[in-house]
Amino acid sequence: MVRYSKLAFRTLVRKYNCDLCYTPMIVASDFVRSVKARDSEFTTNRGDRPLIVQFAAKEAQVLSDAACLVCPFADGIDLNCGCPQRWAMAEGYGACLINKPELVRDMVRQVRNQVENPRFSVSIKIRIHDDLKRTVDLCRKAEATGVSWITVHGRSVEERHQPVHYDAIKIIKQNISIPIVANGDIKSLKDAENVHHMTGADGVMAARGLLANPAMFAGFDETPLKCIQDWVDIALEHGTPFTCFHHHLMYMMERITSKQEKKVFNVLSSTPAVLDYLSDHYGV
């Protein structure tokens, strides 16, 4: 999740049964070229495992160079072939790659050839085509090249809030031998279990659902106060910038605050103001 799945938030969700965390999508060319970009985009620590670093890339050598840089500090890389944002697609990144299976193959192969650690995973995250045969073909080519697993967001590039095509994920799973991870509209542990049963997927990935409730995988239907307390402690310990700290709390408290409370909380402008509010209203 761009801007959100950074170290502090990954630390939080790991406390609540999240098995595997991804970094935000990082543009590989910037990461390789700039020490400043590496320092700002990628921070980790010993407890931050297992960890997948997700890259936006369109050149095999650049992606493999980026993979070599993070290899000592992570368990694998993921090539984003699913981001539908206009800027990403205009640059040749993200979801436009589902229409370039040979380029995806070349990038995966180059990483496999250049990274010496045989346990280092190389995965891809995709969206589906309107013609599902093309998606199955893409997945088969990726599998043949040595992709470790494929995460499938069950919508096309054009779709945003339409229902997720879980039936499409099931068909892909039936045609591929490597693990398939299902993604899209998973907002509770029950959703995760239902999607697993519907699709036969080997795992599920959540993004917005975890933003709203970081304790989701531990079975909580809404963010418990203990989780909010944990976020405050972790964010302060990590020196999380105020905007990020505050935005996460706005997401987490969406379901447990009234419209009137949101009007007050969402316009607070400093960490002390937020801490005072949480203390006065929730005992946090």
Automatic annotation (TrEMBL):
It comes from Alligator mississippiensis. Keywords: Flavoprotein, FMN, Nucleotide-binding, Oxidoreductase, tRNA processing. FMN binds at Q54, H153, A207, R208. GO terms for molecular function: flavin adenine dinucleotide binding; tRNA-dihydrouridine20a synthase activity; tRNA-dihydrouridine20b synthase activity. This is tRNA-dihydrouridine synthase. The keyword tRNA processing applies. Belongs to the dus family. Belongs to the Dus family. Dus4 subfamily. The gene is DUS4L. It catalyses: 5,6-dihydrouridine(20b) in tRNA + NADP(+) = uridine(20b) in tRNA + NADPH + H(+); 5,6-dihydrouridine(20a) in tRNA + NADP(+) = uridine(20a) in tRNA + NADPH + H(+); 5,6-dihydrouridine(20b) in tRNA + NAD(+) = uridine(20b) in tRNA + NADH + H(+); 5,6-dihydrouridine(20a) in tRNA + NAD(+) = uridine(20a) in tRNA + NADH + H(+). Its EC number is 1.3.1.-. The active site is at C83. Catalyzes the synthesis of dihydrouridine, a modified base found in the D-loop of most tRNAs. PROSITE patterns: UPF0034. Residues 1-260 form the DUS-like FMN-binding domain. InterPro entries: Aldolase_TIM, DUS-like_FMN-bd, DUS_fam, tRNA_hU_synthase_CS. Its cofactor is FMN.
